[in-house]
Design goal:
alpha/beta, 5 helices
């Protein structure tokens, strides 16, 4: 199963992709938040799309530095199409990495 993982900066894409790969999932991060190509997430024809949401306040905490709100807002807008087509949507500010991976595996079903 091929899984695209999208989300704003600091949402946990790289960490989640690493954990999914360790479980045998062909997962890859998509830097959709940096692209104006609306369907960049779909270019590798994934079987599923995982959208990792994170609130602006959580990003501030994770980064430990000031990060402009306008950048966050622009990324959320660029990610709108990916989120609309996502198989699974999770807020990584509310749950641990292990819980995020567990919910993704459950959401992908037995073929995962």
């Amino acid at each position: 199963m091929r899984v695209a993982v999208v989300g704003p900066c600091s949402s946990g894409k790289s960490t989640i992709v690493e954990r999914l790969r360790a479980r045998g999932i062909d997962a890859y991060a998509v830097s959709q938040e940096h692209s104006i190509i609306r369907r960049l997430w779909d270019h590798q024809q994934p079987d599923a799309v995982v959208y990792l949401h994170v609130r602006y306040e959580t990003i501030q905490q994770r980064r430990g530095t000031a990060w402009p709100r306008w950048i966050y807002d622009a990324q959320i807008e660029r990610l709108r199409d990916a989120r609309d087509h996502a198989t699974i949507v999770l807020d990584t500010g509310d749950i641990s990495v292990d819980e995020t991976v567990s919910r993704i595996m459950d959401g992908l079903g037995p073929q995962s």
